[in-house]
Amino acid sequence: LADNLVGSLTDCKPYIQDRAIANFAKVNAELGRMLRQGVDAANKKRSEQVRHHL
User: How many folded domains does the chain comprise?
Assistant: First the structure.
């Protein structure tokens, strides 16, 4: 579940990511933590790929 959500959230703007993660964390703190870690890692990877291609 978390991996699927991370995959979808990485295509969203940061404020949407933050809002979605906060909402999921209200339901399940562990899921919120996993989403935050996954989205942060995916965003970092995407940022590094963009810099590499410039």
Answer: 1
